[in-house]
């Protein structure tokens, strides 16, 4: 056996979002949990350092969302507001501006629905809105499909983060097109790639991290589990496993079998057999 | 009085009212952001933006999101 020493102390294996270094590669949503208490416990169990949230018309009779806001603030995490539900550039830009004022962050998870059937992002509107928002000083995290050319446009505009889907929001189908996602990873080695939707189970997340994806954004898969807190822990472990596997270097896949046990001089072995 | 809408509901308010006054009468709970006729209105402009007949004000606050 070789006594070669491997450096397992990957001290600064952080993921970077517009200059902010994060130790956790899991970003988590705040929606769909069975209760605020479970939401808080699941988010904490996930180890996530970024939580997503959104905006809605206020109902003063329902306390104006102040309870939710207080709970989110108590977590002490980075806030990533989204523009969920926006269908036009104007809607998305205005929602981003409201989010920046309200949440005091330049980060915006830019979502622009192009089709209500699968909530597929509108690539043309996405690029237009991204251009406007970057000029206004936003740090845009665009939710996009796995289309390489749209990714190219977004990076050219100045996006330091891309959030391609694995599959449509809330479907849990995992990574439907590994080739396309791998192409984005390989083509933009200096861009932070976060798979934003479609992750349904921890093995999907591991697969993405093994491919070199930088991080995962989760919501439904955790919130809709029978035990969201336990599922949050499972995802945290799966993401860590996938990242370690990527850093370790995966073996090359082969089409023919190759014995792992040495065969020479094994019982019944014959030189000319 | 003039007729406006706040969060899609009809609302009556005195002529020459500012957005700041409308928010107080609506009992808006901070923190919030505001759209006036579907355009973002920075909070610094609430005191000197005057409402007119038919204006649509939206008071927006934080909710859960993915």
Instruction: Bin the helical content of chain A.
Output: 25-40%
CATH architecture classification of chain B: Roll
How many β-strand runs of chain A?
Answer: 12
CATH fold-level assignment of chain B: Ubiquitin-like (UB roll)
Physical arrangement of strands within the biggest beta sheet of chain A: 5-4-3-12-11-10-9-6
CATH class of chain B: Alpha Beta
Oligomer: heterodimer
What portion of the residues of chain A fall into strands of 2 or more residues? 15-25%
CATH topology of chain A: the name is TIM Barrel
Parts with pLDDT < 50 across at least 5 consecutive residues of chain B: none
Low-confidence stretches of chain A: none
Q: What is the average of the pLDDT values of chain B?
A: 97
SS-based structural class of chain B?
mainly beta
Number of helices of chain B: 1
How does CATH name the architecture of chain A? Alpha-Beta Barrel
List the helices and strands and how they pair.
The complex is a heterodimer of chains A (273) and B (66).
Chain A (H helix, E strand, L loop, with lengths): L14 E3 L2 E3 L3 E4 L6 H11 L3 E8 L8 H10 L2 E4 L7 H15 L3 E4 L2 E3 L4 E2 L1 H13 L3 E6 L3 H10 L3 E4 L13 H10 L4 E4 L6 H9 L4 E4 L1 H4 L4 H21 L25
Parallel strand pairs in A: 3-4, 3-12, 4-5, 6-9, 9-10, 10-11, 11-12
Antiparallel strand pairs in A: 1-2, 7-8
Helix pairs in contact in A: 1-2, 1-9, 3-4, 4-5, 7-9
Chain B lengths: L1 E5 L2 E5 L5 H8 L6 E4 L2 E3 L14 E9 L2
